[in-house]
Amino acid sequence: MKKLIVLLALTILSYEGFSQQKPQYTQYIFNQYLLNPALSGIENYLDFKAGYRKQWAGISDAPQTSFVSANWALGDNQLWSNALTSFPEQTGNPMDRNYTQNYMSSPAHHGMGVTAVLDKTGPLSRLDANVTYAYHLQLSNNFNLSVGVAAGISRIALDVNALSFENPIDPILSRALVTQVKPDVSIGLWLYGARMFAGLSAQQILPQKLSFTGDESYNQGKEVPHVFATAGYKFFVDDEIAAIPSIMVKYVSPSPVSVDLNMKFAFKDKVWLGGSYRKDDSFSAMAGFNIGKMVNLTYSYDFTTSDLNQVSNGSHEIVLGLLLNNIYKVPSYIKMW
Prior knowledge:
337 residues; mainly beta; 14-stranded antiparallel barrel; PorP/SprF_Bacteroidetes; Type IX secretion system membrane protein PorP/SprF
């Protein structure tokens, strides 16, 4: 019985703050919407993505994450016709200098979307399902500022059958809280133009207790906010190659601040390559390509630099994207960098 109580206590402690409670992503530079609801409806087509991440391959019961997301603009303005999105194929592509020189900000509009994320680590699994909303304010001819919110539920479950203990009929099992459903709210801001973006978001902002046992002695677990700040800028190497450096700062109390340094190279509207460094954790290599005017596929691999590299074979992440109702035949993501 004591062994099980200790195991449950350690599980709670790890969930409480020694590691992040929300899933970790490498390709957020390709899908910032997963971290910031203010990107809801940022494009004038329906942006659908589905992805899978296997973290720390080679370690038994290491985190595995699957997700789907979709967001779109609301109202008739979703078909606004200006230099932002009315993009005939013969004029070039959104990665060239001509596009950025003639860029016009989006008209004020609303956007919404949905996300579903399933994360599993050992005996713990978590399902987050949210509806998102954003309002995009036109600050000037060159910049927009959007404000977004996500609301939904988190279902957190403990698979008792996956635990090992001395007495298989331990009475504490009758008091185990194997499934919990909590409300979930996130907020965000996103500033964007032709060449730059900056965002600030906070996930899991509602204070919620978290415990897997009715024993008050081990009922100290809680959910904590996750704060993300990011910024990036687009430079041109030549007329058809763009370089986009960016930074992501993440804070989850009481863990140390996490800093990512990213670089992405985009070649016309066909291929992009990238790399990322996460301090005291990993290096990452990323690549993606577009298929026609509707499909894109991206892959990343993380090289672990922490002590886990002695037992881990790195982390894999793959994402499939669809540009639905893409009436202007935009060849690639314009404002997702």
